[in-house]
């Protein structure tokens, strides 16, 4: 048995597999699939997932602390302005964190799909699927928690 010279899939009678020869015929570059295949998507996915989760935690805790302090101490005048500025920072963090989590899920799904596309290759990009799944899990949990938080905040604000 021999292997495709581009992607490394096992081939029977030629040195280029069917998929790679199709790509070459249509003018595209054959896909190089190896241990590092898809890492360009998987690494940012994991970074966005974990980073987004941290930003969301920090911003939610900050918001809750300020809301608690504001309601408990009836802060007035300059203090309110100061709190307002910091609260706006926390809200900005929250939005950036939310965007990062969405990006983590999208990039993670791309990474997992790339891993699946290496079926049959001798060197499968395990790091890609692991990091991609980390990105999806962190991102998805955060998006669910954002939903809960927003619903709670809306319910709390309405009552
Ligand atoms: Zn090939």
Distance from first to last alpha carbon: 71 Å
Q: How many domains make up the 3D coordinates?
A: 1
N-to-C SSE series? EEHHHH
Bound molecules: zinc ion
Supply the helix-strand structural class: mainly alpha
The residue-averaged pLDDT reads 86
Main pleated sheet: 2 strands, antiparallel
Roughly how many Å is the radius of gyration? Answer: 23 Å
Strand content: under 5%
Low-pLDDT segments, ≥5 res: none
Structural description of this entry:
72% of the residues lie in helices and 3% in strands. The protein has one domain (41-158). The protein is built from 4 helices and 2 strands. It has 159 residues and is mainly alpha-helical. The protein starts with a strand and ends with a helix. Residues 4, 6-7, 9, 16-17, 19-20, 30 line the site of zinc ion.
Provide keyphrases for this structure:
159 residues; mainly alpha; two-stranded antiparallel ribbon; rod-shaped; binds zinc ion
Present the secondary structure layout.
Elements: E1 2-3, E2 10-11, H1 18-25, H2 39-73, H3 78-116, H4 126-158
Antiparallel strand pairs: 1-2
